[in-house]
Amino acid sequence: MSNPARGKQKLFPVVNTNLKKTLLLPFAILCLHPSICAGQTDYLQSCWNKQLGNLGNKYLNITYKEGLDELYHSPESWQVLHYNATGKFWCNAKSFLKVDSLISRKRILSSSVEFDNEKLLFRDYGSTTLSPVTKSIFSNQVFESARYTPQNLINYCMKHQTPADEKSNKTFAVYTVTINNSIVRLFIRKADCLVEKITALSHDALLGDVLSTFTYAGYGKAGGVAYPATIIIAKFGGRVRDTIRIANAILTDSLPKLLDGPAGYVMQESVEKQLDLHTLHYNQNIHFIDLVPSGSRVMVIEFRDFLMVSESPLSSEIGEKILSEIRKNISTKPVRYFAFSHHHPDYIGGMRPYIYQGATILCVPEDDEYVGFLYNSPHSLKPDSLQLAPKPLKKLAVKDSVSITDGNYSMNVYHIGMQSCHTKDYCVFYFPEEKLLVEGDLIWIATDGDLKKASASQSGLYHAIKDRNLNVETLIQTWGASSGQYKMTIRFTELEKTALIN
Ligand SMILES: [Zn+2]
To answer: Residue 22 Cα, ligand 1 centroid: separation in angstroms?
Structure first.
């Protein structure tokens, strides 16, 4: 929900605009049939004329309804939360402003955006302050705003004199630009010189290459300016869809004042967060690596001649860093198994480097399709080891439990599923010799103060342990390491007390 979505853009130099218009005007008057409205090949100019040109110094003011689906930390992969929003936006070649509101958990939340060629101001849903804006967030607005209007990208292509490319065919003139490593394509229908769709291929740390397609339908006109009445947004390659329906469109002479920018407005440079890795040796077989400041914790289990790793957060890049840390501070034995407590990004996001290393992935039935998706997902925009040199996916099916052993030292993985009250695929890791159970994010016992009644997930874990007759004395959690607010090492007696409080 934090994407400003919404930008505006800047126009190509006025002198060029006027020149192009002057050259095209006589021909445009002669061509009454839409299929030849663009003359020889300048579909982009004709599109600009139709969707922007007649605005002049006015603004297209649109009222709309939006159906929005967002991925979240859901019990199963690809589940979404649905929101209904209503809003208004104002746009022309120089500006894009938007104000909208949606209902979330019975609360009405609003957001506002002001975008032009010099600045982006954005107040997120439910926030009272402006969100920080980096230069890359600012430049991404050219295509992020495509969910409301294709105007920004049309204008960007005009400004950069983007030529139609080899993707063009009998039906579409296609213009391709690269913005911040995203490949963005504008498809203009040759028949009527209106935008049919925009596609944006971007890198996602967890999912690799992700394609968003914005399709425009049912064009209407306001004051001679063509605008699409319906916009369908297919996100994540079409797995998640949003719809925007335009209720009303008029031209106005002025813009509202939605947000006050700070004095001395400056956009931040994009800075990658540094990640520090700290290795802790629990005993000679069990090691943990804490990631600061993300708060994630990786477990490395050392057997006689191999390793098992569980949890690898967020991205292939971080997975590689963890592997280096393992090699440096734990062991150079091969990683034979990779496991994860559940499918959320903090646990599975860095799985691919382990597949590349030849590890077998422990996989419950609920994750079969998702693990396959992450394995097959192209990473062409930011290649990882698996993209550069594909390796086969090896899986070990885990139904209820599995034991990993070297003949001497053993541990067990238990699939507790919705007993976790968190996800259907939930697994916990049990070490009989140590009477230790390691879990992801189910226990929330404050470091200070009295014990409180267990949350649903905490109580669920307690019952999962009792149901399986596991002899547990100590529990270790793998998420929340850096907050300091909650215990990461918990005595079973403490968990039991919280579960028995009424
Ligand atoms: Zn989780």
So the answer is: 60
